[in-house]
Amino acid sequence: MLATMFAVPASAEPEVGIVTFTVDNVTSEFFAKYMPEFFGRDIPGTMFGQTKPITGAPGDISWENVRSLQQFGWEFGAHGFTHAYMLSKASDEVLEMELGVPAAQILRATGIYPETFASPNGDYDERVLDRARFYYNAHFRGWGNEGINLFDRTDHFRINREQVANTKSVDEICAEMERAGRDGYWLVYIWHRVVDIPTYEYENSVDQFLGVLDCADRLRDAGIIRLMSARDAIGVVPDTPR
Asked: Mapping DSSP to helix (H, G, I), strand (E, B) and coil, where does residue 14 land?
């Protein structure tokens, strides 16, 4: 009886890992052609957008588009006001504009305060992070650690993201997502542009894009991964500041 009472419990299985898709594109073409592919598969995610071009003018999305994201489980995160500056080199005044104006605009236009921020051009330093903490609950990098974030070692202001590599096959990306799910970590991907034939690293083919989404859909339905927006994921992955 004593042996049973004081037996050491077996190691717990790792939590099911999380995959987050982020989109760094506020063009009306991407919104009209490719966001419905997420919506139709019930895949949530986060669109990181600079707010200056959100006017509804030809080529740019509108605030009505942004407001519509919520019904599909999507978050709109801040990505600066203009996306025209390297924030680590910006003046204090420009830094405040790039951090503060998007927060105010998003709140006024949607009624939802943005919790997450991705630094334009992936550029930041400690001064940028100090000011970002004033406005936001998390900061996402432009790259790092192949987009992998461990549940017990993730600083919410240094969250890794990774461009979906157009040099990898759908099967290779699918295997990455499955590993995240089975090994219990958080994998954050970026989509920039989707085109017929990619010509540089921030473009992905239509076939690859659709294939990756189909795989994510299957893995989620099989219980192998959890699909979450950035905002929802930071509510699950503990903050372990460096």
From this structure: coil
Counted domains in the chain: 1
pLDDT digits (tens, 9 = 90+) for 89-122: 999 999 999 999 999 999 999 999 999 999 999 9
Assigned domain for 226 exists: yes
**Residue 210 sits in a domain of what CATH number?**
3.20.20.370
Domain that holds residue 28: 2-234
Rounded Cα–Cα distance for residues 153 and 155 (Å): 7
DSSP-assigned letters across all residues of 156-219: TTSB--EEPPTTS-HHHHHHHHHHHHHHTEEEEEEE-EEESS--STTEEEHHHHHHHHHHHHHH
Residue 42 within a domain: yes
Over residues 71-99, mean pLDDT: 97
Contacts of 39 (CB under 8 A, 6+ apart): 72
Model confidence pLDDT, tens digit, residues 156-171: 999 999 999 999 999 9
- Measured CA to CA, the distance from residue 105 to residue 90 in angstroms comes to 21
User: Average pLDDT for residues 194-223, to the nearest whole number?
Assistant: 98
On whether the CB atoms of residues 225 and 219 are closer than 8 A, the answer is: yes
18 belongs to a structural domain = yes
Which pTM does this prediction carry?
0.93
Answer whether residue 197 is part of any domain. Answer: yes
Q: How many CB atoms lie within 10 A of CB 76?
A: 29
